Amino acid sequence: MRTPPRRLILGAATLAALGGLAFACRTADTSGGALVGDASSKVYVPPGKHDEFYAFLSGGYNGQIGIYGLPSGRLLKFASVFSQNPETGYGYNEETKPMLQTSYGFIPWDDLHHPELSQTNGVPDGRWLFANGVNTPRVARFDLSTMETTEILEIPNTAGQHASAFTTPDTKYIVAATRFSIPTPNADVPIESYRQNFRGTLTFISADDPGRMDIAFQILMPGYNFDLGHAGKAVSDGWFFFSTYNTEQAYTKLELNASQNDKDFVAAVNYRLAEQCVAQGKAHVAAGTYFHNVLDEKSHQARSERKSGTKMLAPSDCPGVVYLLPTPKSPHGVDVDPTGEYIVAGGKLATVIPVHSFSKLQKAIADKQFDGDVQGIPILKYSATLAGEVQKPGLGPLHTEFDGKGNAYTSMFISSEIVKWKLGTWEVLDRMPVYYSVGHLMIPGGDSKQPWGKYLVAMNKITKDRYLPTGPELSQSAQLIDISGDKMKMLLDFPTIGEPHYAQALPASLIEGKQLKFYRLSENAHPNVTKAESEGGITRTGKTVHVKMAAIRSHFAPDNIEGVQVGDTVLFHVTNIEQDWDIVHGFAVLGAENAELTIAPGATRTLRWVPKATGVYPFYCTDFCSALHQEMSGYVRVSPAGSSVALSANISPKAATQMARLKEVPKAESHGGSH
Amino acid sequence: MSKTSRILIVAASLLLLGVFVFPLWSVHLTAPQYPEGIGMTIHVNTVKGLTEFDLGKINSLNHYIGMKAIEPDAIPELRIMPWIVAALVAGGLLVAALGRRRLLYVWFGSFAALGVAGLVDFWKWEYEYGHDLSPDAIIQIPGMTYQPPLIGSKALLNFNASSWPALGGVLAGIAFALAVAAVILTVRAARARRAVPSRAAGDVASMPDALPAGLGS
Hints:
By secondary structure, chain A is mainly beta. Chain A folds into 4 domains: about 35-75 and about 395-515, no CATH class; about 80-225 and about 285-310, 7 Propeller (Methylamine Dehydrogenase, Chain H), CATH 2.130.10; about 225-275 and about 320-390, no CATH class; about 520-675, Sandwich (Immunoglobulin-like), CATH 2.60.40. Chain A contains 9 helices and 45 strands. The longest helix of chain A has 27 residues, at about 5-30. Chain B contains 6 helices and 5 strands; from the N terminus they run αβββαααββαα. In chain B, helix 1 (about 5-15) packs antiparallel against helix 5, helix 3 packs antiparallel against helix 4 and helix 4 (about 100-130) runs antiparallel to helix 5 (about 165-195).
């Protein structure tokens, strides 16, 4: 195998340049006091005031979503999506365990890459956020009024689902695509039979009906690595664009072997034509089992459904459904400008940023400007679809977002900078060094038809010395840049957790007013709900003991439990019967092998507990709920198997007194609820 | 009775109907933990939270100081009050229809007595809720009671309680003011008649200079 020494030299030169830039900027920072003061006033959100934007940053390998306020960079919440979270009990409690079920079993973790806001007419509408899990391919729906994951769909016949979860302008479909091609259907074959047996798929998920996500159809593609995607919009509405790399179809030492071709492809998919072909029965049914998990807001429980079989469309059976646009070199991002005319590819090893034109693409197809085909998929001539190239943009272009004013902003991983350039003239207008090695960048609405082009967030992969060091493992580093003027202005560094890949943001006014404050207890349809303190109790079914318990400031009812025996499985069904904003209760019991529960007002959560030895075990509220939070506790007595201790769930004298004073409360609430 | 007096009495009676639609009184509570505030309104026939959950929130908080739960069904006055108000409205309309001076005085006397009784009763309930605290209350501060004010604001531990008449109460107050005006006019007319016996009662009301300032127009 040949090793080009040229590349090594390039790498060394890059590192040197990076160091030089960093040094140059430090010097500028220290001398720019007035500038710094200006920047601090732009990101200062006074105590008690709210940020202008909600930003949703991917948590990467923590499998969560980080919700931040912009421009302050304040962390508001980490929300569980693909990973168990002991802090909330997500994926540990009985209600949400089904959310993490897959055809591979219970998978407690995933690598969350690309958040995507739902859109109406090409503009973020504040209904949902979608996100993909790369490792065990999944797509999640995240509700923007409860800030909870409400639905997860597994994607069959794919692996390393990277080009996801991008939406069509009407949220009819969310896409998913293969990064690591595999035998499709998966089979025990030699890895060296890659070319013959390995395939990628492009999956279109019907997404506009909450609770009913499903695989609409899949398109069987050559065994390339599909990296990212974005839908066409406006003039290019009805098309979807995916970037590819490893068109070499290497299966070993990809670093080298997948970097040989001068050009890989952007795959342009006419998904309206695909719909027609599928409707005409041109797709075949492919094997492949997958899980669909839905959290029901009324019963507070998730349910899993196992499904199998998808409609698989081969491009050769639906001519015109896919075209391949040669694109230099190992393109990563593929981004469509707000007008829908320009398709920008970030060729991470390219020396230019190539931009394809949708109108030229249409003309090239009409004129049959083909340059061969791959498995029946026509390859178009590079010059026939090219609108222009941004010359000398920097090194390692990855992703591009738009400000809605005719400008594009591209992240440069190797030269560690954001480059602003002009659509149509392809001239570089400005550069902003970022620290260090930016991956994704995000402008609120910057991938939509209507960017709110005021800020840009650079999500940097390397942190180094940006903050007080914290041992070998550091947070990641994001930077906020003002893009409202001709020149970019650096405003703020803020640390981010996990590894933010993509992010989305929208004006706070779109979702702030519809945030749920608590669940209505009167509508709680959990089978083991306790709606009033007097309704708590204990029952035994064989070796399983169900404890129904109410949590309200500042006690559990019941709080003394006896009759549990070694060998029993105890299920604590705890209902937070508060109907007040931000009065959350927690529940933890000594020796629990899973996690705690946190229970939102009006919700019910269940903790499974298997005591292994006799004794008395305390349980307590973990969320500092009130002045008497420390008193919010109780005991479970565990007796030997076969013991004659009667099953009982007593109300303590203290709780009984409180109950006597409060006995009309649930009635009063239901009275209030009838108005 | 003059035409003006009769009109005033009809207007007072109709305004009183407003208490069937709008709350009489409003109690509003704020605390560091409740920047958005919670509160309740007292209606002619019930007590309601400002939102459907507020009464539950207030009762939940009050259990710390050992206050009894506020339960509208346990307050018998709320069952009687609508009938009392209805009787006042009917009585007012009857007085206006008959135009009998003595009946007006009886009606006005009832109105005034019932109004005072209502406020005293409201104060008494506030007193009882504020003072009848559980002996084993969680928070016990010697000498501290939790009676909200009848009118105005008062600090109760971390809460600031404000109590003011609501729209229904204001309408009832205006109704009472109109009744007072009707009584004053009638009394003056009666005096005038006694002073100049030859004049007909109806003429007095048509003489603007015989009316107190502001009521003539």
